[in-house]
């Protein structure tokens, strides 16, 4: 390929691929989208707002807001009743994304497009007084571009975390759709520009309980915002950076043609947003097969902590790679099979409060063993398999294996499960009536003339719930 810069590792016709993605993004039209795509987009917007709102109530996030002390502006900061400047708003809202480990995911490739898009586009939409359909067009187009870039990257290298990588490129482009009024050339420049910045983060901060980890999505979101602003100002990108730099050095197996899968003549012919998934547990998705298995056993067998003699957990290889056997805080606990299984047994269900009481969980965690189940490896990447076997003091042994957890495209989340998650998370900050109002505002966006109703519903009137969990 030709690029304006020398790089012998350039491996695909990057400029034409990038421009076709950009053209598809700017041609995304809410009115022309299939109803199932519209529904999925609104569902993911609601899910993302709920996750960020509940995350903002975590003590770590309250301390971060106090430390940054955002200056006034037009943009919502979750956990605050006063608007802030866009840079602080995107930083603070982005920081909430991983706190509870409940963010959305994309089932065909590791990454979390919807919530990073929501964090950036909400702030930009508020600052620019964008029409709701402009925001929704950018959201859907950004998801589609992000997903295809992820497919082209072939995944995330083993040593890197799946926050703040290929998704950032798509979010940068989506933000540019708003800042540059649908200019495909500008959007293409944002794709290459974000690629050249090459964000990549250490995978192992999670199991170490290193809470600066929460700055990964914050840095990714502010990077996307700044790329869009830079392109708007006239800063230029090196054409071909997506393939020649990012694809060559930060991909797990670059495949340029995959980025145009499901596109025809610069338009979406199918929608990858339908391959998004919802996290029903406050834990790493690699543990969700295990989390589903213990939930099913508890529901079917009705046993309690005092009934348990021992528990054996088997994980697929990638689950074992991230598993933390001795978590020191709730971040690490969300990456721990022992902690999440113990919390489910002790409290009857796995939810955030149970992961804050690690000392109380320790006696039960000591009864749990975790090992690799090679027989489970064949089910990835679409599956997140896990097996839980419980030996009861009565002598009975009960076991459950789950290959595809609930919330994934193979076992879709039900409307009641999805809404229960959103209402529970929003209710922690806004109360039941406030949560209902936000739900109504989100689903009214296609008919709304401005974002003011949604913005007003998201501003906290009074103190955030002190427990936050």
TrEMBL record:
Domain MmgE/PrpD C-terminal: 281-442
Residues of the MmgE/PrpD N-terminal domain: 20-237
Pfam families tied to this protein: MmgE_PrpD_C (PF19305), MmgE_PrpD_N (PF03972)
InterPro entries, alphabetized: MmgE/PrpD_sf, MmgE/PrpD_sf_1, MmgE/PrpD_sf_2, MmgE_PrpD, MmgE_PrpD_C, MmgE_PrpD_N
Gene Ontology MF annotations: lyase activity
SUPFAM superfamilies for the chain: 2-methylcitrate dehydratase PrpD
PANTHER family according to UniProt: 2-METHYLCITRATE DEHYDRATASE, 2-METHYLCITRATE DEHYDRATASE-RELATED
UniProt record similarity statement: Belongs to the PrpD family.
Protein's UniProt name: 2-methylcitrate dehydratase
Lineage: Bacteria, Bacillati, Actinomycetota, Actinomycetes, Kitasatosporales
């Amino acid at each position: 390929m030709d690029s304006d810069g020398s790089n012998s590792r350039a491996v695909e016709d990057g400029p034409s691929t990038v421009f076709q993605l950009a053209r598809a993004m700017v041609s995304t039209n809410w009115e022309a989208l299939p109803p199932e795509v519209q529904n999925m987009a609104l569902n993911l917007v609601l899910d993302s707002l709920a996750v960020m709102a509940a995350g903002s109530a975590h003590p770590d996030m309250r301390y971060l807001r106090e430390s940054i002390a955002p200056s006034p502006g037009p943009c919502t900061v979750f956990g605050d009743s006063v608007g802030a400047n866009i840079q602080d708003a995107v930083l603070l809202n982005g920081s909430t994304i991983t706190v509870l480990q409940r963010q959305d995911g994309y089932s065909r490739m590791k990454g979390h497009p919807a919530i990073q898009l929501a964090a950036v586009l909400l702030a930009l939409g508020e600052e620019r007084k964008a029409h709701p359909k402009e925001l929704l067009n950018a959201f859907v187009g950004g998801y589609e571009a992000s997903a295809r870039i992820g497919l082209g990257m072939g995944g995330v290298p083993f040593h890197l975390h799946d926050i703040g990588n290929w998704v950032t490129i798509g979010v940068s482009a989506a933000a540019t759709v708003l800042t540059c009024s649908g200019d495909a050339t500008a959007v293409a420049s944002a794709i290459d520009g974000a690629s050249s910045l090459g964000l990549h983060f250490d995978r192992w901060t999670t199991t170490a309980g290193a809470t600066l980890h929460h700055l990964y999505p914050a840095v990714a979101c502010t990077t996307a915002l700044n790329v869009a602003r830079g392109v708007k100002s006239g800063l230029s990108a090196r054409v071909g950076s997506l393939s020649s730099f990012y694809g060559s050095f930060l991909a797990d197996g670059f495949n340029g043609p995959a980025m145009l899968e499901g596109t025809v003549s610069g338009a979406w012919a199918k929608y990858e947003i339908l391959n998004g998934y919802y996290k029903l547990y406050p834990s790493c998705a690699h543990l969700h097969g295990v989390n589903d298995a213990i939930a099913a056993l508890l529901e079917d067998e009705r046993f309690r902590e005092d009934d348990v003699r021992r528990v054996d957990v088997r994980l697929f290889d990638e689950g074992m790679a991230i598993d933390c056997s001795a978590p020191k805080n709730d971040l690490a606990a969300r990456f721990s099979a022992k902690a999440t299984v113990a919390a489910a047994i002790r409290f009857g269900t796995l939810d955030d409060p149970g992961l804050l009481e690690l000392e109380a969980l320790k006696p039960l965690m000591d009864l749990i063993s975790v090992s690799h189940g090679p027989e489970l490896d064949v089910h990835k990447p679409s599956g997140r398999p896990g097996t839980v076997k419980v030996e009861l003091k009565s002598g009975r042994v009960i076991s459950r294996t789950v290959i595809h957890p609930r919330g994934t495209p193979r076992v879709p989340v039900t409307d009641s499960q999805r809404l229960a998650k959103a209402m529970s998370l929003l209710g922690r900050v806004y109360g039941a009536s406030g949560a209902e109002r936000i739900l109504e505002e989100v689903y009214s966006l296609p008919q709304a003339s401005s974002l003011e109703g949604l913005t007003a519903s998201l501003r906290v009137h009074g103190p955030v719930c002190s427990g936050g969990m």
